[in-house]
Each structure stands twice: as structure tokens, then as C-alpha cells.
């Protein structure tokens, strides 16, 4: 029997065949024959005779029709008893409370190291269990072949760990291993071993990071038709009973899909993603410390903890007792780090990995001299900037044009080692932006569109690839290498000019992105990430295309540039939170606020889905001082930026979140104001008058515009601000609401409750971070450094 009968078997089908051939014992009867079968399936060659029956079973599983009745389901179990009786294992696991671990320390080198260490475990260590360095889909593992081999031989196969496990695992078993989680098939006898190995690897490598992994056995038929009972009889819940109980709230919540017939909704729920849902439920139970039924494993009740003492020195995170100080001795016999920091072993590992990930040439002897024997696996840790540079080698770009004009080689460009170096690249020196982006509609897409393990595998790869490339494209388009000022150059103890990549990629995992960039480029970068993410996915597969249109006059408040109505929407998009703040803002605090902005952007995206818009959204905040917000952003806006006028009119002094189209319009309007050189005092005066009510603000704005001496400035303000943003909702109404705009059609029902909002405050906040289109080179940083209060 040749594998050509299976129509080019996928890696998932090879994985299923491998698990069936292995059986339910801990040792394979003939491992060499198993490997031969696997290779024959990969190469489309003759399968050994003793395994041809198993391969045929996999082929039958692929071609089964969906049973619409209980009787049809019962007939399938009788016709294919081997598919009903055979079982396969699935394991799901990964890190939990990731932000708690990554942002535990206050300093960027430690945060960078924590993120890089988790990435290494997820992208290299766990795939190494499965021999993934020998598979072309795992490029990072291929670049660290020796390290992957050492993980199995010197850790996994040790007698006190899981000595039999590695022989039972092959690369094809991995469904995905991105975004901090892994989902993989597994021979049934090794489910608990693999789950325990995942948890133990995270704990032994990080010491303090939380992780969790669970596994379960499933019948082969369940891969196609979702969770099934142990016995098929007339009383089981299937399509007929679902149709009769459509109004049951529990059943409705579990199955119902918008704009989908009941029959289709049932079929979309009863497939492989229902198995993944069960694993996710088990994962949450174990993470919360509960015992799992019929699973013989130690409880996962408590996170790793280290004792502290009130009279002992603590590490820089103030969480654990310090065990060493990275201090240079007077005779230079031992070398330390700047500031002579104190470390616990957990924080020392973060700092070491941070140095490796940043390709920091400073000495790591401080760690060697500490006496710790843990090895970081240096060759397996890759810098995000290094990956960005590799991306530049594969695409046309103008990123290095600036240094070419200086007759410098690209090798002169180093990685920024501090947030101050990133802030130095902004036209308003000393300000940076934190960008946190996350995918929209992911859960709904998986439930509706993901039918089998192969879909899961392709989906995870597509999302990770689109996320990574969209970030690189945005950085390439809006940034260039930056020459540090003299003071920062002196801090590096360099005698010649220092050029840096002016950004920091904290993490790119699955559909998550965390970046630090210069403040003046942040919104343009966020907009490009969202646009390119959708564009890349649409280019990959037609399945991501949403054949629905929306009315741009209802969705987008910005009408300055004609919005093309297209049926080429992507079913998936990104929402983004952007915090513009000083470079000395504590990172943990900035991350907290950026996360709140992301949630606000995602809430806005969810509201806009009602009007047929599935694209990205962005919420941003310019924070000029750490004391500007005492609670959270939502309360700050509700209490400080929301007023109530006559007739219960609600006045919002902000307009965030924005769609990607609106964000582009906001940036264009801000640039127009900047190019026209509007008097700052007038801009701030109009902003202050917004709080005095709708009519007062309108009168003062009109007075301001007609008093402008420059006729060109008047026309620019009318076209770029009034006509673009402030037209009334009714097309036959020639009135003027500027500087206000009423909320979109359908949000409010009566005139007395109409809400008015304005972009003016956002424009004023962005004004210092907007470069003039003309004579921009003549602007000096001294002219831009002072922010208005």
C-alpha cells in the first residue's frame, strides 16, 4: 500500500498513524519499524505490511461524512469499530500569569530577559521534546540543533525525569507551539508524562514562572465529531434534540452562532475544537488548584515560592532574598554590572538571558563568578532585533538610507540598551510609546472555522507569521537608525558615534505584540501593524476573507478622505493600546495603563461589529506626568473628561478609540495644523473652553477661526477639521457642530440623550509629537522638548 492513496497525507495524519501504531503501552514493540512507516508516509513510499491496516484507518477517518441523526452515528461506530475503540492522546499546556513573571522587575534588562526566557522554552525547549530540530517548520530549533539534542539527552531522558518519553515523540505530533502554549498529540501511555515534563521544564528553567499542562484520551471518531459519550443510544444529545431545545439558555449559549442555521451551528461545534475546549477547561481547573477526575497526577495547587526574611537583603524586584551582588571588586578580580545590583537566582537568570538576547557585549563573568551552574542555552536565544535584521535581508526597504548617506555600514547599528536611547529618537526628546496589540475575533473564528487539527496547525502558523511580519513592516516603514546624543554616547563609553535601532520588541507571541518605540512614530506604527496584519492574512488564504460590506458613513467619523467600500474585509483584526509617556515612567505602570487602553480598543471593536466593521481599532493616551492618572483610565475619562450640558447632553472631551481609518485621519489633521503653524496659545484656549459647554465651545471656535489672519489657515481648518470630522449626521443639514461631532447613527435614540465628542483634545495632545512636512530638518529638538501642561 502506497501513501498516494491518502492524497498526500498531512503531518497530522502521520501523527495519528504514529499514535495508533505505538499503541497503549509505554514501550513500542518495534520502534525501527515505526520510524520506517513514518518515513514512508512522509516520502510517499510503500508502508510496511504490518502497518497498512492502521494507515487505512487514518484514511477512513479523513473521509467520514457527518452523521445528522443518532442512528447514523450508531451506524458509523458499528461500521468502523476500530475508529470507535482506538484512542489517541492530546496534551495542552504552557505558561500562565506571564505578565506577572515578565514585569515583576522594574528594569528593562530584566523584563527583556524574562520574556526571552519564556520564548526560548516555548519555541525551542518544548519542541525539542519532539525532535523538532529535524523538521523544516521549526527554523529556530534547526539553528540550535545541539541544544535541542542536549535537552533530551541531559534533561528529559534522565532517570529522575522522563526517560522513556522522547522515543515516543516525533515532530508531526505538535499541532502548534506558539503564543506561550503548546497543543500536541501523544501516545496514550505518555499523556501524564508529557504534561508533567512541560510543567517541570518551565519551573526548573525560570524557578518562579507559573505553568500548567493537562492531557486526555479521545476516541478517533471524536477528532471528527467532537466529544461523544462512551455508549451510543437513543438518549444521547445529538442534532435532533438540539433542534427541539433551541430556546434552552445553556444549550443556546453553547451552540448558537450569529447568522447561522441551527444545523450548521451544531456541526461547527461538534468537531475538533470541542476537544480543544475540553482541554482548556481542564487547564483552568488544574491551574486553579483543583483535582481532575480520573487523572493520577500531583495537584498543581501552589505556585513556586521562595522564602524571604525581613532582615535579609532582597533582590531588585524586592520579591526574594538576594544571594549575590554583581559588584566589581577593587582589584578587578571579579567583574560586576553598573549599579552593583543584588540578585536572587531567579532574577540573575533573567538578567543573564536579557544580556544574551540583546547581544550585549559587556561581560557576563558576574554570573559565572556567582557560582550558579544553570546554563542559559545561549545559542538557542535569539534577539528580536536579530530577527528584524534577517527580515530586512529578504525585503526591499529604505530603512538604512540614513546611515548610507553618512557612508556607514549597517553593522554600525546596534541595539538600544535602554528606554532613554529609544526616547532620544523622538522629535520630542525623552518621550516613548508603549504599544500593546492583540487579535480580535480569534475565539469566534476558531469555533466557527477550525474543523480539524490540520486547520489548527495552519491557523496558528498564519497568525504568528502575520503578527511578526506586520511588526517588522511597520518598524521598517516608519523608523530609521538613530544617532545617539553625546550624553548617551558617553554612557556607552564610546569614542565614536553610536547608531541604534530605536525600538524594543518585548514580545511577539501568537497574536500578541508588545513594543516600545519613539513617541512621535507610535500611532503610525500601530496603524500599520493593524493594516498589514489583515492584509497578510488575506494574502495567505481565502478563508480569512469576510464577504460583507459596511457603511463607512456610519462606522467612520472621519470623512476627509473617501473611504472605499470593499467586500474584502478580513475576519480577523488587531486592536491596539498606545501609551505615550516620558522615558522615565516605571515600566510596570506603563504596561498596566497600556493594557487598559487595549481593553478599551477591543471594546470599541466589539461595538463596531454591530455595524458590520471587523477591522482594527486603536486607543491611545498621552501621559505627560506619572501623577496625571491616580486610578485607571476609564475613571479618569469618566470623571475628568466627561461633562453634562443642558437637556442631559453628554459631552466627551475625547474621541478614542479610533478605527484604523479614523486614526489615519487624525494624524493627517494633526499634520495639517502643524504645517499651518497654528498659534499654540489658541489651540490650548479652545481646549480649555470645551469644558464650558457645547454652545460656548462652538462660539469660541467660530470666533477663533474667523479671526485667523491667514486665509489659507482658515481654509485648511475648514477642510481638514470641520468638513472631515464635524458634519451633522443628517445629509440635508448644513449646520456646523465644530469642534464637536455627534456619535454615530444608531448609538442614541433621542435628541435629548445625544452624546457629543471631540478630537480637539487629542489633537492638542499629539501636537508636540507631529513633525512638520516641510522644513522639518530645520526643527531642532530644543524647540520641541517642552510639553505644554
Question: What is the distance, rounded to the nearest whole angstrom, between the alpha carbons of the first and last residues?
Answer: 78 Å
Low-pLDDT stretches: 1-8, 745-752, 775-789
Which band does the percent of strand residues land in?
5-15%
The mean pLDDT is: 85
Major beta sheet, strand line-up: 11-12-8-15-16-19
The tally of helices reads 33
Shape: globular
Helix and strand composition category: alpha+beta
Major β-sheet annotation: 6 strands, mixed
How many β-strands, per DSSP? 21
Helix content: 40-55%
Radius of gyration: 29 Å
Give a description of the structure.
This protein is α+β, with helices and mostly antiparallel strands and about 800 residues long. Helix content is about 45%, strand content about 10%. It has 33 helices and 21 strands. The strands form six sheets. A six-stranded mixed beta sheet has the order 11-12-8-15-16-19. Strands 2-3-1-4 form a four-stranded antiparallel beta sheet, sandwiched between helices. A four-stranded mixed beta sheet has the order 17-18-21-20. Helix 1 crosses helix 3 (about 50-60) and helix 7 packs across helix 9 (about 145-155).
Question: Quick summary of this structure?
Answer:
This protein has 789 residues and is α+β, with helices and mostly antiparallel strands.
Keywords:
single chain; 789 residues; alpha+beta; six-stranded mixed sheet; four-stranded antiparallel sheet; 33 helices; 44% helix; 12% strand; globular; disordered N terminus
Amino acid at each position: 500500500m502506497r501513501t498516494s492513496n491518502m492524497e498526500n497525507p498531512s503531518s497530522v495524519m502521520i501523527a495519528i498513524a504514529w499514535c495508533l501504531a505505538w499503541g497503549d503501552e509505554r514501550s513500542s514493540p518495534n520502534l525501527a519499524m515505526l520510524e520506517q512507516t513514518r518515513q514512508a508516509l512522509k516520502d510517499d513510499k510503500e508502508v510496511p505490511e504490518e502497518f497498512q491496516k492502521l494507515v487505512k484507518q487514518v484514511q477512513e477517518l479523513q473521509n467520514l461524512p457527518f452523521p445528522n441523526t443518532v442512528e447514523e452515528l450508531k451506524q458509523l461506530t458499528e461500521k468502523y469499530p476500530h475508529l470507535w475503540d482506538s484512542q489517541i492522546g492530546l496534551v495542552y499546556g504552557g505558561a500562565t500569569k506571564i505578565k506577572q513573571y515578565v514585569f515583576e522587575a522594574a528594569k528593562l534588562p530584566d523584563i527583556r530577559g524574562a520574556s526571552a526566557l519564556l520564548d526560548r522554552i516555548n519555541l525551542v525547549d518544548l519542541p525539542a521534546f519532539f525532535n523538532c530540530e529535524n523538521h523544516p517548520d521549526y527554523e529556530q530549533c534547526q539553528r540550535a540543533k545541539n541544544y535541542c539534542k542536549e535537552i533530551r539527552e541531559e534533561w528529559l531522558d534522565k532517570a529522575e525525569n522522563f526517560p522513556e518519553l522522547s522515543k515516543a515523540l516525533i515532530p508531526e505530533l505538535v499541532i502548534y507551539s506558539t503564543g506561550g502554549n503548546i497543543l500536541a498529540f501523544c501516545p496514550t501511555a505518555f499523556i501524564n508524562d508529557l504534561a508533567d515534563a512541560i510543567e517541570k521544564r518551565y519551573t526548573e528553567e525560570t524557578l518562579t514562572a507559573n505553568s500548567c499542562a493537562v492531557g486526555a484520551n479521545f476516541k478517533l471518531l471524536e477528532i471528527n465529531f467532537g466529544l461523544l459519550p462512551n455508549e451510543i443510544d437513543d438518549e444521547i444529545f445529538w442534532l435532533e434534540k438540539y433542534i427541539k431545545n433551541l430556546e434552552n439558555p445553556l444549550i443556546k449559549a453553547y451552540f448558537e452562532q450569529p447568522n447561522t442555521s441551527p444545523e450548521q451551528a451544531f456541526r461547527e461545534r461538534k468537531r475538533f475544537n470541542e476537544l480543544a475546549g475540553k482541554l482548556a477547561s481542564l487547564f483552568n481547573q488544574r491551574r486553579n488548584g483543583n483535582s481532575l477526575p480520573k487523572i493520577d497526577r500531583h495537584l498543581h495547587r501552589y505556585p513556586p515560592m521562595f522564602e524571604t526574611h525581613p532582615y535579609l537583603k532582597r533582590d531588585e524586584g524586592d520579591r526574594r532574598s538576594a544571594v549575590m551582588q554583581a559588584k566589581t571588586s577593587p582589584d578587578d578580580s571579579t567583574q560586576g554590572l553598573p549599579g552593583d545590583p543584588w540578585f536572587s537566582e531567579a532574577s540573575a537568570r533573567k538578567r543573564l538571558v536579557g544580556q544574551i538576547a540583546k547581544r550585549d557585549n559587556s561581560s557576563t563573568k558576574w554570573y559565572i563568578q556567582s557560582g550558579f551552574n544553570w546554563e542559559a542555552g545561549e545559542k538557542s536565544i535569539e534577539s528580536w532585533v536579530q530577527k528584524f535584521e534577517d527580515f530586512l535581508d529578504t525585503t526591499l526597504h529604505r530603512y538604512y538610507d540614513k546611515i548610507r548617506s553618512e557612508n556607514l555600514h549597517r553593522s554600525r547599528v546596534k541595539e538600544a540598551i535602554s528606554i532613554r536611547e529609544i526616547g532620544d529618537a523622538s522629535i520630542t526628546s525623552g518621550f516613548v510609546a508603549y504599544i500593546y496589540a492583540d487579535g480580535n475575533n480569534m475565539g469566534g473564528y476558531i469555533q466557527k472555522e477550525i474543523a480539524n487539527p490540520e486547520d489548527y496547525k495552519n491557523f496558528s502558523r498564519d497568525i504568528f507569521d502575520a503578527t511578526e511580519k506586520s511588526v517588522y513592516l511597520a518598524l521598517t516603514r516608519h523608523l530609521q537608525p538613530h544617532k545617539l546624543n553625546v550624553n548617551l554616547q558617553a554612557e556607552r563609553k564610546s569614542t565614536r558615534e553610536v547608531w541604534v535601532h530605536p525600538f524594543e520588541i518585548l514580545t511577539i507571541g501568537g497574536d500578541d505584540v508588545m513594543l516600545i518605540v519613539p513617541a512621535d512614530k507610535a500611532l503610525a506604527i500601530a496603524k500599520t501593524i493593524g493594516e498589514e496584519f489583515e492584509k497578510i492574512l488575506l494574502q495567505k488564504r481565502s478563508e480569512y476573507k469576510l464577504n460583507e460590506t459596511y457603511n463607512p458613513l456610519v462606522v467612520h467619523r472621519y470623512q476627509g478622505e473617501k473611504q472605499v467600500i470593499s467586500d474584502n474585509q478580513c475576519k480577523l483584526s488587531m486592536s491596539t493600546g498606545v501609551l505615550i509617556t516620558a522615558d522615565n515612567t516605571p515600566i510596570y505602570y506603563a504596561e498596566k495603563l497600556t493594557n487598559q487602553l487595549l481593553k478599551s480598543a477591543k471594546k470599541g471593536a466589539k461595538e463596531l461589529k454591530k455595524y458590520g466593521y471587523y477591522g482594527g481599532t486603536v486607543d491611545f493616551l498621552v501621559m505627560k506626568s506619572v501623577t496625571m492618572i491616580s486610578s485607571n483610565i476609564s475613571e479618569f475619562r469618566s470623571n475628568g473628561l466627561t461633562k453634562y450640558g443642558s437637556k442631559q447632553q453628554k459631552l466627551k472631551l475625547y474621541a478614542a478609540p479610533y478605527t484604523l481609518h479614523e486614526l489615519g485621519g487624525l494624524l493627517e489633521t494633526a499634520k495639517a495644523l502643524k504645517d499651518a503653524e497654528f498659534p499654540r496659545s489658541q489651540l490650548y484656549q479652545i481646549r480649555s473652553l470645551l469644558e464650558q459647554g457645547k454652545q460656548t465651545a462652538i462660539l469660541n471656535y467660530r470666533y477663533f477661526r474667523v479671526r485667523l489672519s491667514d486665509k489659507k489657515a482658515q481654509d485648511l481648518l475648514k477642510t481638514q477639521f470641520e468638513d472631515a470630522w464635524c458634519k451633522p449626521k443628517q445629509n440635508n443639514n448644513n449646520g456646523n457642530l465644530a469642534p464637536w461631532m455627534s456619535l454615530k447613527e444608531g448609538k442614541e435614540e433621542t435628541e435629548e440623550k445625544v452624546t457629543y465628542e471631540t478630537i480637539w483634545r487629542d489633537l492638542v495632545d499629539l501636537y508636540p509629537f507631529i513633525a512638520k512636512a516641510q522644513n522639518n530638518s530645520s526643527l531642532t529638538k530644543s524647540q520641541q522638548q517642552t510639553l505644554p501642561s
